[in-house]
Structure formats: structure tokens, C-alpha cells
Amino acid sequence: MKILSVVGARPQFVKLAPVARAAREAGVEHVIVHTGQHYDPMLSDVFFRDLGIPDPDVHLGVGSGSHGVQTGAILGALDAVLGEHQPDWVLAYGDTNSTLAAAVSAVKLHLRVAHLEAGLRSFNRQMPEEHNRVLTDHAADACLAPTQVAMDHLAAEGLAARSVLVGDVMTDVLHDVRATVGDGPPDALTAMGLREGDYYVATIHRAENTDDPERLRRIVEGLSTLDRPVVLLAHPRVAARAAEQGLDLAQGAVRPHAPLAYPDLVAATIGSAGVVTDSGGLQKEAFLLRVPCTTVRTETEWVETVQLGWNVLVPDPSAIATAVTRPAPGPTSAAPYGDGRAAERAIDALTGPA
Ligand code: UD1
Q1: What one-character-per-residue DSSP string does 57-68 give?
Q2: How far is ligand 1, taken at its centre, from the CA of residue 42, in Å?
Q3: Whose C-alpha lies nearest to ligand 1, atom 22?
């Protein structure tokens, strides 16, 4: 049995970590292909190092570009790689351009393709991630879903027969990393003079928030008025857009900082008074660590975090301060994202009887 994983962007490296381990433990041959969509060391190499992921077997080195150019470059490069390796399964992760290219390349070569984190929907057809996940689910032979809600979406689209509820692999990673980090903020944040419980963590990187200058300006303004320092972990996209727009990110309470390695991000979140983000992963990590989250979007794929009271959607940036200072939610023992063994189930689903 040979599984070939295609990854390219930061959240996919996090998801790859437990899958690579589960594949190793199951004695499955596992080939890792890095598309090169993310190439900055802080968005790529540190995840392989910190999460104990084997080095990629193949690196396509595609880099940045418009959606069509980037997706097309990956698609063009994958044909030869998949043809050479002839895996039993191609495994695509999440909702990036690397995901879609992997799925299309595999189906065209008549190779079986599985989609990990299948069935998530924002129902917002303006989002590139929504295009990628819908198209990938419909191309896939196996849809490996993280939640019951995702299973329901797949069923509603006629995909129930090929769907399996495995749980969320990001929960697997978070459980492991949580056990290795302390309770206080990481050194990078204490060096900024930040104290436990007395700062917020913010990340903003989605196109709908960064690419409209007026919207980005209003988001930074919303963060600047918060009652505690806000560590804004600036993804290259937001740093680049702010520079192009002549927008100073270091306003009021906002303290810009480079992206953090994964264990430091977990520690920073644990030590914070709250999270403000448009990242899917961080909404869920905040919930799993029971840190209140405010999401600067009109909708979320991780609806359980909102239903359980730990996440609030704030489409209007001028409402960020009110949302962030809301009363703390009540405790919950709900576990909609699984038990931390999703990767094992994903590998079982692919290696089990056809
Ligand atoms: C991608 C995913 C998004 C995911 C995010 C995680 C798509 C459509 N989007 O968005 O779903 O949440 O990754 O971070 O696939 N850049 C760098 N260095 C890098 C990577 C990007 O400087 O290593 C800059 C470039 O200016 C590039 C821009 O960021 O043009 C956007 O990068 P890209 O990979 O296209 O999308 P992300 O915004 O990272």
C-alpha cells in the first residue's frame, strides 16, 4: 500500500504531521510531495522541523501566483510525479490551490484520490477555499470528514456513499503539542513585555479581509482600540498588502510580529485573553484550548465553535472591541472535533477493504 500526500500551505503541514505518523505506524509506504505554494521558512520549514514530519520526497517549487497560474503550475508538475510513483491513493488536504490541483491531477490519471477535511462548507462562493473544497470533494473517491456537520453536507450533495467520519486531524496535533508546551506565553511574546492573560492574539490573512484597502484599514483600526496589547501575527499576505496600501499595522494596541512556529502559537493562544482571527484552524484551536475567539468573517465552516458559545462572528470591524470584551462563555465538555485519533482512522479508511 502506497499513499502519496500532496501538501503546500501552512495548515496542510499541520494536518500532515499526524497522518505521516499514522502511516508509519501502520507500515504504509508514504510519499510526501510539497508543492511549494508556501516557501517562507516560517510558513513551511519550521512545521516539518517542530512537528517531526519527514522531509518531502518531492518539492515542486511552484511559489506564488494568481489562482489559475498557481493551480495550473501544480497540476502541470504533478502528472510526472504521480505517474512515476503510481500510488494506491493520492491524499489531498483542506482547501487550498494545492488541494484542488492534487485532486484534478489524480482523477485525470485514474488514480484514487482521498480528501482529508472533506465536507466543510462556508456557502460563500466568493471564497477561493470554497471553490477548492467543493470541487475536490466531488472529484474524490473517498471523502474523509472531520465532523458530523461535514458528513451532513456531503450527504446533501449526494456524496454519502463515499464519505467516512474520521474526526479532525488538527485535534490530534493539538493534543500532542499541548502536552509539550508550558502555560505561559512563549519567549517571543515575553520578550515583547507581554504577560500571561494580558494580551490578545490576532491573525488576519484571508483575501476578503486583506485585499480591500478600506476593509483592512477598518480591521486594523478595530484591533487598535482593544483594551490590551494585540499581537498581530502577520502572514506575508497581510504584511505585503499593508505595505502596498501605505497602512501602518502598528497602531494603538496593535503589536505586529512575524508568524510563529506551531508550538509557540499554541503557547501564545493558551496564555492569551482571547483570539481575533479569520483563520479556520485558529478558531478551532482556540475552542479546543477554551480561549474565547472572535472571527472577522461573515460565516464559518466550524459552526460548532459558535453554537457552543466560544466563537463569535464579527463581519463589521467596528464591532470587534465589543465582541472581544464580551463575558466569558460557560464551560463545555463537548468534543465535536473528535478524540485525537483521526489520522489513524483516515489511514484505516484507506488501507481497509475496498
Ligand atoms: C493559502 C490558502 C488559504 C490558507 C492559507 C494559510 C489558497 C487559495 N489559500 O492562502 O486557504 O488559509 O494559505 O496560510 O490556497 N506569500 C509569501 N510567502 C509564502 C507564501 C505566500 O510571501 O511563503 C505571499 C505572496 O505574496 C502570495 C501571498 O502571500 O502572493 C498569498 O499566498 P498564497 O499561498 O497564494 O495564499 P495564502 O494567502 O497564503
Answers
A1: SEE-------HH
A2: 12
A3: 236
Does residue 36 sit in helix, strand or coil? coil
Give the active site residues. 205
Summarised one tens digit per residue, pLDDT across range 86-101 is 999 999 999 999 999 9
> 136, 100 in Cβ contact below 8 A?
yes
Q: Which residues line ligand 1 (CB under 6 A)?
A: 9-11, 37-40, 43, 64, 70, 95-97, 128-129, 205, 235-237, 240
Report which protein residue has its CA nearest ligand 1's atom 19: 38
CA 15/CA 31 separation, integer angstroms: 15
Provide the CB-side half-sphere exposure for 99 (13 A, CA).
31
| Predicted local distance difference test score (pLDDT) of residue 353 | 78
- Alpha-carbon gap, residue 85 to 22, rounded angstroms: 20
pTM: 0.96
**222 Cα: distance to centroid of ligand 1 (angstroms):** 24
Helices (H), 109-180: 128-139, 148-156, 169-178
Q: Where are the alpha helices (DSSP H) in the chain?
A: 10-25, 45-50, 67-85, 97-108, 128-139, 148-156, 169-178, 187-190, 207-210, 213-224, 236-245, 262-270, 280-288, 303-307, 320-324, 342-351
Give which of 66, 50, 11, 56 is closest to 33, Cα–Cα: 56
Q: Closest residue (by CA) to atom 31 of ligand 1? A: 237
Counting every residue written for the chain, the total comes to 354
Say how far apart CA 96 and CA 9 lie, in whole Å. 7
